[in-house]
Please model this.
Amino acid sequence: MSDALSKAEAAAREAAVDTAAVQIALAAVELAKTAAAQQQAPAPPPAPARSQLNTGKWIAIGLAGSVCAISLALSAIAVAVGAVAVTCCLLVLRSMWRDFQRRG
Model:
């Protein structure tokens, strides 16, 4: 019986060693799966709010530039109309001055 008992003890020790090796192997497999899942995770997409902010900023700059350009054009037209009016006025005054000089 002692021979059977020693065989049973040896088998139990071997099973315990095999169980520990299997547990370590399973833990290594799980660790590898976790690492692979983390590496395959896609990068988050860029935030769309930032690009919308840039678009809005450029639209505002374009509108402000257009308003400034139109204001500059209207100012140039006003200066030209004023110059024509002053020229006409000076021509009329000069003509009147010559008439007064001849009669006088």
Observations:
- The mean pLDDT is 82.
- The two ends are 162 Å apart (CA to CA).
